[in-house]
Write a structure and sequence with these properties.
Length: 455
């Protein structure tokens, strides 16, 4: 017996979001023999974009039963059946999480129709429910509603039952899908060959196209985390598309970050959408006010702007500016943190020398501001930064010349280099952009690299 299930939710995270609708069709291998469906009150608001996609609104679930009120029916109707769903880990993890909140351990054997379809119907353009059903001429009524999607899964499941399964059902059930990739094209050997080293990894689809790029200090562990901890439908969609995994060891976390950033901009992977654009949207800027004081401010980065340093969001910028203000004994009024008329609060507690009221001269104050800017900004000189290599006998490096990031490279430690310019013969050229500069600046400020050579 099989329980073919679909749910709708308030979002994609089973540990944060809640179920809004569930449909269960019990199938005996020939036909549906029992069914159950209901809206569920998630006890929280449904995000507008979810409501638009599913058609389920707050008003619709306001008088619906809460999960604990239907939990017994779900246990009973699925008892002694195999849990079947399209992208089964998503539905199963949500239902397990709801039961866990009630102090009940829910467990069923599972079958995923994505996995089954990949094995029994290879070569399809897509294995998402909508596109697969379209290609197989399976009509879906009420798409993105639990009942409509579950009925479509029933028809797909019946079609799969007619294929020559040759033990595929048993084989697929025997897989712990929470710890294995959805796409069976990824072999156990592929995972085992991933190194536990620092570097960049690539997820590729069945056509060899890069769909995701990441970096990690432990490539194998990070990949296993991707494949086992599914937190959203987007993550599950990505896992289902992965047909191969490649990697490049860098040894250096700094080089890995720089390479990841550049590769994302070059390849524009489908699941790195947010990182295709610059990661650092706010910048630290300076200007001279009407009294001759060098003032600082945080503002959004725009095309052509040249901030001293950048941040991924305004909050991180403020935290950095607070620490910079404390470190160089600056005025919070002139750093834009607390605008006041007259003396700032820091002057009252003797942490400001009075630039805000003209007590400290612009020359003295501006000298400290310039020191702060130099600390925050990118290297303006010639510098080679050494770090760990890919193997113990190797050293990695990045090179900055005349304040411009040139790229990175690797040299054997026994290589005799007498002049800094000789590093250039080992360098892999890279683009000098805001993201690369911010990555390097952060590492240098936090002293997270090895030896530095000025030239």
């Amino acid at each position: 017996m099989y329980s073919i299930i679909d749910i709708e939710t308030t979002g994609g995270n089973p540990y944060r979001d809640r179920i809004t609708e569930i449909a269960v069709y019990v199938h005996d291998g020939k036909k549906v023999v029992k069914e159950y469906q209901t809206l569920i009150n998630p006890e929280r608001r449904i995000p507008p974009f979810i409501a638009r996609m599913t058609g389920i609104t707050d008003d619709m679930v306001a008088r619906a039963p809460r999960f604990y009120e239907v939990a017994k029916q779900i246990v009973e109707i699925t008892e002694n059946t195999i849990f079947v769903a399209h992208n089964a880990s998503f539905d199963y993890n949500f239902i397990k999480s709801e039961f866990k909140n009630l102090g009940y351990y829910y467990q069923r054997e599972c079958l995923c129709t994505v996995k089954l379809s990949r094995k029994l119907l290879p070569g399809k353009a897509s294995y998402s429910l909508g596109r697969l059903c379209q290609e197989l001429d399976i009509h879906i009524e009420h798409r993105h509603r639990a009942s409509g999607d579950a009925q479509a899964t029933v028809k797909l499941f019946e079609m799969l039952l007619q294929e020559k399964t040759n033990g595929v059902f048993v084989e697929t059930m025997g897989m712990d899908f929470n710890n294995n990739p959805v796409n069976p094209a990824i072999s156990k050997q592929t995972i085992e060959e991933l190194p536990r080293k620092t570097g960049v990894y690539y997820f590729l689809d069945e056509k060899g196209k890069i769909i995701y790029i990441g970096k990690s200090k432990d490539i194998r562990q990070r990949v296993l985390t991707h494949l086992s901890k599914v937190s959203s439908k987007k993550a599950l969609e990505m896992i289902g598309m992965i047909a191969d995994i490649s990697y490049e060891v860098t040894g250096s976390e700094l080089v890995a970050l720089l390479k990841e950033s550049e590769e994302i901009k070059t390849h524009k992977p489908l699941f790195n959408r947010a990182q295709r654009r610059t990661l650092f949207t706010y910048g630290l800027y300076s200007y001279t006010d009407e009294n001759g004081y060098l003032a600082l401010k945080l503002d959004k980065n725009t095309n052509g702007s040249s901030p001293h340093t950048s941040f991924s969001n305004l909050e991180k910028g403020k935290n950095f500016l607070f620490s910079l203000t404390d470190k160089y004994n600056l005025c919070q009024n002139l750093t834009g943190l607390y605008g006041t008329v007259g003396a700032c609060f820091q002057y009252a507690v003797k942490q400001c020398k009075g630039a805000c009221i003209g007590k400290e001269s612009p020359q003295d104050y501006n000298h400290r501001v310039q020191q702060a800017i130099d600390f925050a900004g990118f290297v303006k000189d010639n510098l080679i930064v050494l770090d760990k290599g890919r193997i113990p006998s190797e050293t990695s490096f990045i090179m900055i010349e005349n304040g411009k990031y040139l790229g990175y490279g690797f040299v054997e430690r026994e290589t005799c280099i007498e002049q800094a310019q000789e590093f250039k013969q080992y360098i892999t050229p890279a683009e000098d952009n805001k993201d690369a500069r911010q990555i390097i600046s952060g590492f240098l400020r936090n002293k997270r690299t090895g030896k530095r050579i000025e030239f």
